[in-house]
Design brief:
This protein has a single domain, classed as Domain of unknown function DUF4159 (Rossmann fold, 3-Layer(aba) Sandwich), CATH 3.40.50. The protein has seven helices and seven strands; from the N terminus they run αβαββαβαβββααα. It has 219 residues and is of the alpha/beta class. The chain is globular. Helix content is 35%, strand content 20%.
């Protein structure tokens, strides 16, 4: 489990003379069944990777990879992003594969792009039937990496007046799933022209995204 993460850290931060060349690792976008638009926000992950490379010194390839929930290719990605507005369905085999990936050192960020919440909670219960999502306190380390968010998850887009909330699933005291609700981090990562967000809003979204990447690679 820890060897998986060690190899990722060496590749990402280039800390030794024998490290692989820059930009050998990619962030992953999770493709799932059920009809939800898993492909939403196509410019989000390239922008997040570039921001992490500038701000954290990582060596991520901006060309993210698309990976299916049940695929063995999932293990090629140190950090996987999931988004959408609608239905999410995992088969039993897919849920088992995702669980093995997460308990083996992987990390999943789920970003509710508004509308997927009731479905993703059911899907996650298949993956971790023995536990549930819990709202993370504002002092959780995920909010206090390179960038500090003393009030927790930043609000990027407004939908129905609800506050932004960050939930998590912990496995053996390690945060393996971070679920952002009523925030729309991914929208804030997109090209500025897509949503016309202010520089301050985009900065907050990208900084929180960088925290998620940094936290995942340090665990």
């Amino acid at each position: 489990m820890r060897m998986f993460l060690l190899l990722l850290l060496v590749s990402l931060f280039g800390s030794s003379a024998t490290s692989p060349p820059a930009e050998t690792l990619r962030l992953g976008l999770l493709k799932y069944n059920g009809g939800g638009d898993w492909y939403a926000n196509p410019t989000a992950l390239p922008n997040l990777a570039r921001f992490c490379n500038r701000a954290l010194g990582t060596q991520l390839d901006p060309d993210y990879g698309t990976v299916e929930v049940g695929s063995a290719e999932l293990y090629n990605y140190p950090w996987v992003h999931m988004t959408g507005h609608g239905n999410v369905v995992f088969s039993a085999a897919e849920a088992e594969n995702l669980r093995n990936y997460l308990t083996g050192g992987g990390f999943l960020h789920i970003d509710d792009n508004y509308g997927m919440d009731p479905y993703v909670r059911v899907a996650l219960e298949q993956v971790f039937p023995e536990t549930r999502l819990v709202e993370l306190p504002f002092d959780h380390p995920v909010y206090h990496q390179t960038y500090g968010f003393k009030n927790g998850l930043p609000k990027i887009h407004e939908h129905d007046g609800d506050p932004a909330q960050g939930y998590g699933i912990l496995w053996q005291d390690r945060l393996v799933v971070f679920y952002s609700v009523s925030s729309d981090l991914g929208d804030g990562w997109e090209d500025q022209a897509v949503h016309n967000d202010t520089p301050e809003i985009r900065a907050a979204a990208l900084q929180m995204g960088a925290n998620l990447v940094e936290y995942a690679f340090q665990q």
